[in-house]
Design goal:
With 563 residues, the chain is an alpha/beta fold. Helices cover 32% and strands 29% of the residues. The chain folds into three domains: 205 residues, Vaccinia Virus protein VP39 (Rossmann fold); 79 residues, Spermidine Synthase, Chain: A, domain 2, CATH 2.30.140; 211 residues, Rossmann fold.
Length: 563
């Protein structure tokens, strides 16, 4: 729709079927009409919930106007100074992105087209109650907004209860994790209170947005004024006061990155995704010559009609056509070995721990007395591996229709499938729906439903009859975990039915929803965290803080589940 080179950067406005209008700076996606509400909700409302008395705000960057739009919803704010180095970004967004820029003409907003570093350097002591650094990543014009000197000046110009919010970068990629860790360490040395919180933003690298919260005096959880914020009656698409708490609860690997050394669990060159995005759906060979390599093999899968995820393949290890599906095991530099079923990535060595941690450990934390488990699907064995870590579990029945899939994973994905030969595991190559129909009443304490993406199979495992059978064969404190797609049905059958979430980079939009249903146990109230922690299990993603946070869902997800 528009393209120009300003004095600072390349600016483009694009349009897509899936995400509407898109702003890119130097070829990197900044804002889309579809999911901008996630980012702008989370960069503004947590701080306003912690300190409703904020009156004067400084926004550095934020040229699209979305941050100012959310701030302008608070009548108690008296002045918003927005300092954006590139006037052309603002003018272009005023013309092409009215959804974000509509409030830039609010009488309380003063626009200054200057360098944010110099602005803060010359601002008066204690001038602002809130500073929001809505910048690009630490490259190009945004690089200097991540320096210790800049953060020290922010501290000086904040009032006694002042808050600094800054945009951080995803911890999923080594390049990003290193810089996010450095920025957080600088802030921690300057501010007595420094925390990070997160949001799921589909169009950001790996689907994760990270924000920094720093304050002279206010803790983002203990000092939050939840009742006062709710009384404002603001309608938000993503933020809510339950989510506020959950956003500050991080996966174990994030805690390790921030507190100790980076675990380096995922290495991706984001530019490779952006520039070498070639393919048709399924496994394809691209003849595009990149850096002189010639023929390339890619796994590409469509997440929607106009959105595709692709991974460059370095080796094709195994291929077969079973009675049910095409099975491919491939290898990539970024994700290690991964399993593709009918051309769709089912599991990979780099981030599989997230999915399997969340399939198993929340239920085991809620009911530590689980003894007999039924797993339907998950033929690669990750769920069984996590279950087998509990010595109290006596039997695991795994129902997988495709024996060839199980054998291939045992041979080529041993790190995931290693526990399929545990003496407590009984493998049954049968139909999961039929198994549930024929099982005895009250036979299982836990049922995990994790089928592959075959539409016919999923349909058989999502009928009301199937869930009624699951209810029947569960014990009195029994728990059902599924993929979160049948909430309306499980809510009809089970007295307790809710959902929880995780951030998984290789899942569509980086977001994964799980369903939790039970006859008697509430996943956030009937939880014995101390007993679970005494087990001493080392998990890369799950922890007891995250357990509560995972059930704190964004507003748009809550609305979806309610309807």
């Amino acid at each position: 729709m528009h393209s120009e080179k300003s004095a600072f950067q390349q600016i483009d406005i694009l349009e897509s079927e899936e995400f509407g209008r898109i702003l890119t700076l130097d070829g990197l996606m900044m804002v889309t009409e579809k999911d901008e509400f996630v980012y702008h909700d989370m960069i503004v409302h947590p701080a306003m919930c912690v300190n409703p008395a904020i009156k004067k705000v400084l926004v550095i960057g934020g040229g699209d106007g979305g941050t100012v739009r959310e701030l302008a919803r608070y009548k108690t704010i008296e002045q918003i100074d927005m300092v954006e180095i590139d006037e052309r970004v603002v003018r272009i967004c005023e013309h092409f992105l009215p959804i974000t820029s509509a409030k830039l003409k609010d009488s309380r907003v003063k626009l200054y087209f200057e360098d944010g570093i110099n602005w803060v350097k010359h601002a008066r002591n204690s001038e602002y109650d809130l500073i929001i650094v809505d910048s690009t990543d630490p490259i190009g014009p945004g690089k200097t907004l991540f320096s210790a000197k800049f953060y020290a000046n922010c501290f000086r110009v904040l009032s006694e209860n002042g808050i600094l919010i800054n945009q951080q970068i995803s911890l999923c990629f080594d390049w990003d994790a290193s810089r996010a860790k450095q920025a957080h360490a600088k802030i921690k040395r300057i501010f007595p209170i420094a925390r990070l919180y997160q949001a799921h933003t589909p169009t950001y690298a790996s689907g994760l947005s990270l924000f920094g919260f720093a304050s002279k005096a206010l803790d983002p959880i203990e000092d939050a004024k939840f009742d006062a914020w709710n009384q404002l009656g603001l309608k938000t698409g993503y933020y809510n006061t339950d989510l506020h708490i959950g956003a500050f609860a991080h996966p174990t690997y994030v805690n390790k990155i921030l507190d100790r050394a980076s675990v380096g669990w995922l290495k991706i060159r984001t530019n490779e995704f952006a520039r070498w995005f070639r393919a048709f759906s399924g496994l394809i060979a691209s003849l595009k010559n990149v850096s002189g390599y010639g023929l390339e093999l890619w796994l590409a899968e469509n997440w929607s009609k106009s959105t595709r995820f692709s991974v460059k393949v370095s080796k094709h290890i195994y291929r077969a056509k079973s009675a049910f599906q095409r099975i491919d095991i491939l290898e990539s530099r970024e994700f290690g070995r991964f399993l593709a079923l009918d051309g769709f990535m089912a599991v990979n060595e780099k981030d599989e721990f997230i999915y399997h941690d969340l399939l198993v450990h929340p239920a085991m934390c809620v009911n530590p007395s689980i003894k007999k488990v039924l797993v339907i699907g998950n033929g690669w064995g990750g769920a069984v591996r996590e279950l087998a870590r509990y010595n109290t579990i006596q039997q695991i029945d795994m129902i997988e229709r495709d024996e060839q899939l199980v054998c291939a994973c045992q041979q080529f994905l041993p790190g995931i499938a290693a526990k399929l030969k545990d003496s407590r595991v009984c493998l049954h190559y049968e139909d999961g729906a039929a198994w549930a129909a024929n099982a005895k009443d009250g036979e299982y304490d836990l049922i995990i439903i994790a089928p592959d993406d075959d539409a016919e199979l999923k349909e058989r495992l999502s009928t009301m009859e199937f869930y009624q059978n699951c209810f029947r064969i569960l014990s009195k404190d029994g728990i059902l975990i599924n993929q979160g797609e049948d909430h309306a049905k499980t809510k009809t059958v089970f007295p307790i039915s809710t959902a929880y979430q995780a951030h998984i980079p290789t899942r569509a939009s980086g977001h994964k929803l799980f369903g939790f249903a039970s006859k008697a146990l509430d996943p956030t109230e009937a939880v014995d965290f101390e007993s679970w922690e005494r087990l001493g299990l080392e998990t890369k993603y799950y922890n007891v803080d995250l357990h509560i946070g995972a059930f704190m869902l964004p507003t748009h997800v809550k609305d979806m589940l309610a309807t």
